[in-house]
Amino acid sequence: MPAMSTATTRAEDEVGVVIHLDEDTSGKFEAVLRNVGHLLDELDRSPVELVAHGPGVAVMLRSNPHAGTVQDLRDRGLSLVACGNTLARMDIAPQELAPGVSVASSGLGQLVRRQRQGWSYVRP
Amino acid sequence: MPAMSTATTRAEDEVGVVIHLDEDTSGKFEAVLRNVGHLLDELDRSPVELVAHGPGVAVMLRSNPHAGTVQDLRDRGLSLVACGNTLARMDIAPQELAPGVSVASSGLGQLVRRQRQGWSYVRP
Amino acid sequence: MPAMSTATTRAEDEVGVVIHLDEDTSGKFEAVLRNVGHLLDELDRSPVELVAHGPGVAVMLRSNPHAGTVQDLRDRGLSLVACGNTLARMDIAPQELAPGVSVASSGLGQLVRRQRQGWSYVRP
Predict the structure, then answer these.
(1) CA dihedral sign of residues A96, A16, B36, A25
(2) Residue in A with minimal Cα distance to B40
(3) Which residue of chain C comes nearest to A123, CA vs CA?
(4) pTM of the model
(5) Are A81 and A60 in contact (CB under 8 A)?
(6) What is the pLDDT at residue C45?
(7) What is the ipTM of this complex?
(8) Which residues does chain A have within 8 Å of residue B41's beta carbon, measured at their own beta carbons?
(9) How many CB atoms lie within 10 A of CB B57?
(10) How large is the average pLDDT for residues A55-82?
(11) Using CA atoms, how far apart are residues C8 and A66, in angstroms rounded to an integer?
(12) What does the pLDDT look like over B19-28, one tens digit per residue?
């Protein structure tokens, strides 16, 4: 059953999870980063991508107090994507972003693109 | 390969995005409407639908300060759906809704229906 | 067309909805439980599962003021899942959970697992 075994491999190994972060309310960054860590533990081989826009983009700045945690999660496989519209609107220069952060034209667009690739979506 | 080409066409042209709005916290309506505008720019031919329930329904009232922006987005293709349960509970009459707003029996039900049709879901 | 009729049956009867609750802001529990009730009315035969983590787990405690409503919804078919990581971190013992609550290793992991089974996701 080659089709079935391919599907299983995809589901477990290649199909990822995209996490939506657009708030910077009290404790939100700590909670989201902690949850991302648990997800990396549990999903092991699946790609996990954090997409930030609006106030959520702050977590991806070099100057953010959580930059060390963000870098640790990146070392464990987390992809980091910031919203280009937000960077333009908030006048954030690319060099202010933490190492490894990529920029998508829009945060919501990226979240839609991933879902169309079959990824799961969570918005903690 | 007619099946494959149909699938591609659907993914790009017909399969939409449903946006969930159920809060009216400070700045939420501005942020969501701005994000919807960016999404309409980026997705071009895909349907985009805003589903509001609870306090989020206020953005779809004629009397809302954002009614002009909502109407502009509708002119650009945005569909507007309000939760019927919320309208009943808050005693909002149909004529208080902005032009073009449709009413679903429940907001969550509509969000589920769209996902079952293959639409992506985002909750800014 | 056996494949198609199977797909239809699954979509209507077996494929569920997973609801994400990780906040305990003012009025959030009331709103989420009311929405879950409307969803159970509307979806009838689909499984509906509430997954709580972080501050959201409080709604699943025996001692919570909403415990009666939670139990009524459970009697109507709602599944209740609490995040094991949260229980460990908050030092909540299993016997503090309301009857019928199951524990997943992580809340986000459970939300991803359900989506990979084809379930819809809503985050009120």
Answers:
(1) negative
(2) A109
(3) C123
(4) 0.90
(5) no
(6) 86
(7) 0.89
(8) 106
(9) 26
(10) 98
(11) 46
(12) 999 999 999 9
